[in-house]
Amino acid sequence: MKINTRIILLALFGLTCVNILRANADDSTKLQQLKFEMIKNTVIFYATDDSLLKGKQIAGCSNDATIEQLIDHTKSLPGVNDKIKMFNNMAVANAKDLIRLKEIILNEVAGKGKEYRVNRPDYDKFKSSLDKASEEVQSEEPISTTKLDTHKVIVPVAQEQVIPVEQSVFSGLTIWNCIAIILSLIAVVSGYIFSRNVKEKKGTSSATSRNHNNSRDNDNNNFLYEQLKSKQQVLEDRVGSMELQLKKLIFAEEGKKSQERTVTDITGGMQPVNVIKYAKTADGNAFDVSTLSDRQDNKKIYELTIYEAGKGTFKITANREAQLFALEDPNNYLRGACDYSSLPSSYNSTITTTSPGKIELNGSKWSIIKPAEIDFS
To answer: Is-contact 86 43, C-beta < 8 A?
Structure first.
């Protein structure tokens, strides 16, 4: 019986491609579902925080099925929508990304200045829901889960790096992608060997009787089968060795990346030291990065000093025209960013900052960690 070699090759290659696409699609869908569940559980936790609610009632979050619905439900909670968008914009392509998202969420919810939330009775249940989601996709190889501290900045020393050839080739592939590629190579090599032996067999065949040819063909096929079986075993051994090498490379790469995370500003560059910025007003409890200016135009009420990447202070500007502009509507321009015990006695009052406020970079906003204390004279 004659076997069409091309049909065998196409069938093996097609089967491999289908398995790759199906595995990637299933993994991606599961990761995105787990990511949404993490964000949704976080929103539900925020929606029961009395310090954010301030008498309001937020209900129905548990029935939301999209990010847009979550944002619509929590639009009255200060700062929560920005955090939802920040979490949703984080790319989650594998288990490591999902674990990193969990650590960032926990740090945003109960990090520096928000430790009181750890003592809430529903905190353990909330944290367990995040742990359960991240554990569903953890692979067998060890993955670094070092807690990401957004208040600390790690600045890598610029130096020329030499990347090994093996690492540059395989760093963008998963274990299953590599195994699928290797199986395809096995199919191609096996098909080539089979085709070459068939051609050699045809070239040496003589014009003998059909019965004699059939008998010799059977002998050749048995010999070829034994050859292919031997070569297949060698290739399988090599696949096992390459899989082990890939695991080591991936583990080393993940450890390296976890030590080189650097906090950058919204433009992508490192925030310089002791930079002065000006803002007309605060957006709720934060200053939007896009509204900051390098120049005072006599209407910029706040003066921000960035003394360290990701941290800074702010005060009321000494510019007299800007102060008079703020005194036209102090509740609108000063409330939220400043603490003061009494209103100005007149329009010509002077605003004095008795204690500067503190800010920290949080995504695209400088969050007010501590309001500035001011006085009117």
So the answer is: no
